[in-house]
Amino acid sequence: MRKQHKYMLLATLGWSLAIPAPSQSQEIVHDKAPAQLERMVRQDCGSCHGMTFKGGLGSPLLPENLIAYSIDDLTTIILDGLPGTAMPPWRAVVSQRDAIWMAQYLKQGGNN
Amino acid sequence: MDQLPPTRERQTVGTTMRNCVVACCVLFLGACSSAPSSLRGTADLATVIARADGQVAILDTTAHQWTGKVAGLGDLSHASIVYSRNGQFAFVFGRDGGLTKVDILNQTIVGRAMQAGNSIGGAISQDGKLVAVANYEPGGVRVFDSQTLDLVADIPATIGKGPDRSKVVGLVDAPGNRFVFSLWDSGEIWIVDFSSGTTPEITRFENIGTQPYDALITPDGRYYIAGLFGEDGMVMIDLWHPENGVRRILDHYGKGETRLPVYKMPHLEGWAVAGKQAFVPAVGRHEVLVIDTDSWKETGRIAVHGQPVFVMAHPDGKHVWVNFSVPDYDTVQIIDTESLEISGELKPGTGVLHMEFSPRGDQVWLSVRDDNKVIGYNPYTLTRFAELPLPSPSGIFMSHRAGQTGL
């Protein structure tokens, strides 16, 4: 597990550098309604991470677990996944704005 | 011949009288502790998980209605159920490590243990005395007395010599009071044998493949088959001959092909067998694989609507039903096992998470998560005969699983 965690940090760092991330100050316009996004995060992300984000096959996603990750990091992970792990890229299902909304939702412990 | 030893006769009478007194006491206590409104069996009952609010609902598949609901089961965002051998008690395995024993006749919780931080499922032993739980955190298996829920054995899923532990998946019961499970992080299969008491004999099979994600056991309890997420193919152990080790099957499957992002792990619960063909979900592909159960070779692939999650055979073997992962989970497809073609399709609503057939196959029940309902269909006419409200329903578990190995 420790090895995987290290890899995850490296991968995230790599992508953060490689892909220009959206500015955090930009206005959030989400392509799905907030209720739909919330349901998706709870239910579909929750399939692996737990509906209460305490983890499952995927890592826990509570705010204290995400301290080391910026909104941009999380957005990138949601959109592009983490190769070598079971985290898939959600780009085909989730827009960039959706992913930013989800990242903020997780960082704020489910209060958007 | 006619001179029966008098001492033995007296003993027999004495024992009988004692038994009678004990029986009377038990009956009396039973009458005091609970008073079911009327006697009934459980063979037509199912227990359904309401994942969002930590309750289960008991479904009467004859009357097509809930007989009751039981709340207070914790986080059921990924939950499953096995039954006591008399079909009266459901053991519910919650995401948060909660193990809850529910009396489905009286709709009450009769026992509950928070036995780990994070769990994925469980199994009940062949003799019905042991309930085993597969845990992610701490990684391993804990085994409980099915009567009292007292801890009987703690089996840490150590990686190598430890101290790191692996998440455990694909836990099933096997004949001979054994449990079999797989280690996600370290790619192992373990057999733990409880046939000689509460201290198990453990057999480890290492280097079986990358990231086993789930497993199943064939209905006769002979073959344990684990699916691999980290590479293509599946691995199989012949439990008649565990000394022969693991065997790779479907090894060539998917080689050199790009697979799609896997939005939800497929489930291998149950074994969709029709005749000599078995049907399993492909990982990361819009396909159901067909396997010949004599040669264990792939004999076909069926293109389907999305990435399959559950592939379930109708009890009559003529059809196999398939549901799909997000975003295609509004659809259920039905495969004809003779022609290997899609012979029917349903759009029951958004978020079809599970399907369960009645034991003789006259009914199939689907849980539709986002529509907050459980729908009963006639699987032959595909007509709805019941629609019952339940918040975020997921797994549906018929009580006849009590008598089935691996379920």
Describe the fold and architecture.
- The complex is a heterodimer of chains A (112) and B (407).
- Chain A is mainly α.
- Chain A is 49% helix and 0% strand.
- In chain A, helix 2 packs across helix 4 and helix 3 crosses helix 4.
- The longest helix of chain A has 17 residues.
- Chain B has two domains: 184 residues, Methanol Dehydrogenase, Chain A (8 Propeller), CATH 2.140.10.20; 140 residues, 7 Propeller (Methylamine Dehydrogenase, Chain H).
- Chain B is built from one helix and 32 strands.
- In chain B, strand 1 and strand 2 form a beta hairpin.
- Chain B is globular.
- The N and C termini of chain B lie far apart (51 Å).
- The N terminus of chain B is likely disordered.
- At the A-B interface, helix 2 of A face loops of B.
Approximately how much beta-strand content do the residues of chain B carry? over 45%
Q: Count of helical segments of chain A?
A: 4
The total strand number of chain B stands at 32
CATH class of the largest domain in chain B: Mainly Beta
Quick take:
Chain A has 112 residues and is mainly α.
List descriptors:
heterodimer; A: mainly alpha; 4 helices; disordered N terminus; B: mainly beta; Methanol Dehydrogenase, Chain A; Methylamine Dehydrogenase, Chain H; 2 domains; four-stranded antiparallel β-sheet; 1 helix; globular; Haem_d1_sf (chain B); Cytochrome D1 domain-containing protein (chain B)
SSE layout:
The complex is a heterodimer of chains A (112) and B (407).
Chain A: H1 2-18, H2 34-49, H3 71-80, H4 96-107
Helix pairs in contact in A: 1-3, 2-4, 3-4
Chain B: H1 6-33, E1 45-50, E2 55-60, E3 65-70, E4 80-83, E5 89-93, E6 98-103, E7 108-114, E8 118-124, E9 130-137, E10 140-145, E11 151-156, E12 168-174, E13 178-183, E14 188-193, E15 201-205, E16 212-217, E17 223-228, E18 234-238, E19 246-249, E20 272-274, E21 277-281, E22 287-292, E23 298-303, E24 308-313, E25 319-324, E26 332-336, E27 341-346, E28 352-357, E29 364-368, E30 373-378, E31 383-389, E32 393-398
Antiparallel strand pairs in B: 1-2, 1-32, 2-3, 4-5, 5-6, 6-7, 8-9, 9-10, 10-11, 12-13, 13-14, 14-15, 16-17, 17-18, 18-19, 20-21, 21-22, 22-23, 24-25, 25-26, 26-27, 28-29, 29-30, 30-31
